[in-house]
Design brief:
alpha/beta; three-stranded antiparallel beta sheet; 404 residues; 13% strand; single chain; D-Maltodextrin-Binding Protein, domain 2
């Protein structure tokens, strides 16, 4: 499906390829880059599972780019960024170094690590973006993506933190920490499940259990340690296998995507859903998918937060235009628009205090949705992401020891 879509794009998109290569672009002024980008097309491969996010990109962002820069933004929906990483790698192995199919990717975590290690990312240009000045690169959570230094190879877009959602009309007092949640699952057969890794939301739920089994993340931070992993993983698989018979459908099957879990929650088949982006709960209530009584919450022992980014592949033929897209995405105006609860409710990746007074006033005027736990409340118990090697080992271990 993805490959046929790429072929269609290559055959039908009249994209104006950059005449300058990456190194030449890095020697230009920003005004020269903007002129180089004019009239270009950017094929942005990004997760397409949320209608409001799709609308923000296809309507608001695309309109700004067309109006101000005569750039056409082509949003290409995908289910997993790993598909695009493999596509770019395949192109590199085929010797396609300046006419790739992908101009921009929404990415983070192990997929970024894979692209960086394989030299698949365009790097060393981010200081050229005027709106890069709005980013606090002194923040380790921004400067490192799942423990991997960004090194000018990607541009932050949003910050997120995991949260659970429940219907307060049917479950007024949800469990408040992981130990209590595990007990609740066993006491309420069939009312809980999670997507099977490598779905990124299912994977982060498993990591929360992994942290719980480790007594917290402190012993897991830093480079991957096989001996520590073996001890903690054994405890984790024991917990997950113990609760499996009490899951939805007796644990005989797992949802494969977060979309499927959301549908089970909307239909009342399970009592919880969860997401890295708690704003999605409010959007679902506004759309009439969830009842008004849905509320979201973190855990007293913490939930995992991270930053997500956009990345330009090394062989994008439209690097200048992709850089302009990234600069627009970083702007105070674009970050404010997606922070509005009726649009997306996304947390900004920039320092609001570095924006204009008008943008700061806009952020101050935003009123949170009652179904969305305030980000400030979540942040009081924020947990760090592990380095990517841990993620790979946990996902593979789950498949071998639980998902089998």
């Amino acid at each position: 499906m993805l490959r046929s879509l790429v072929v269609f794009l290559l055959l039908t998109t009249a994209a104006a390829a950059d005449t300058a290569d990456g190194e030449a672009l890095k020697a230009m002024t920003w005004d020269e880059i903007v002129e180089q980008a004019r009239g270009g097309t950017v094929n942005w491969f990004m997760w397409g599972g949320a209608d409001n996010i799709n609308a923000y990109v296809s309507d608001y962002v695309a309109a700004v780019l067309k109006r101000d820069h005569d750039i056409t933004l082509n949003r290409v929906p995908i289910t997993d960024a790993a598909e695009v990483v493999n596509l770019v790698l395949t192109e590199k192995e085929a010797g396609i170094t300046d006419s790739g199919s992908v101009d921009l990717i929404w990415i983070n975590g192990e997929n970024f690590r894979s692209m960086k290690q394989a030299d698949l990312a365009f790097c060393g240009y981010t200081d050229l973006l005027p709106n890069n000045a709005l980013v606090n690169w002194d923040n380790p959570a921004i400067a490192n993506d799942f423990g991997v230094p960004v090194d000018g190879c990607e541009v932050p877009w949003n910050t997120v933190q995991f949260a659970f959602a429940h219907d307060s009309a049917t479950l007024p007092d949800p469990p408040q920490d992981m130990a209590a949640l595990i007990d609740w699952i066993k006491a309420n057969p069939g009312r809980f499940t999670y997507p099977a890794p490598p779905d990124f939301t299912g994977s982060v739920f498993v990591r929360h259990v992994f942290y719980h089994a480790a007594g917290g993340p402190d012993a897991l931070l830093g480079p991957f340690d096989q001996a520590t992993f073996d001890v903690v993983a054994a405890r984790t698989w024991a917990i997950l296998n113990e609760i499996e018979p009490f899951l939805w459908r007796g644990g005989a099957t797992y949802p494969t995507t977060i979309t499927q879990l959301n549908e089970l929650f909307a239909n009342g088949e399970v009592a919880f859903t969860f997401n890295y982006d708690s704003a999605q709960f409010g959007i679902a209530v506004q759309a009439g998918i969830y009842p008004d009584t849905v509320r979201s919450f973190g855990l007293t022992d913490g939930t995992i937060g991270n930053t997500n980014y956009t990345l330009i592949p090394f062989n994008s033929p439209n690097k200048a235009a992709a850089m302009v897209v990234q600069n627009v995405l970083l702007s105070g105006e674009a970050q404010l628009e997606k922070a509005r609860t009726e649009v997306w409710g996304a947390a900004p990746a920039i320092e609001i205090t570095r924006t204009t007074p008008e943008v700061q006033a806009g952020f101050a005027a935003i009123k949170g949705h009652p179904s969305v736990v305030p980000s400030e409340e979540l942040a009081r118990a924020a947990l760090p992401e592990l380095q990517a090697d841990w993620l790979v080992a946990i996902e593979e271990g789950w498949k071998a020891n639980v998902g089998n």
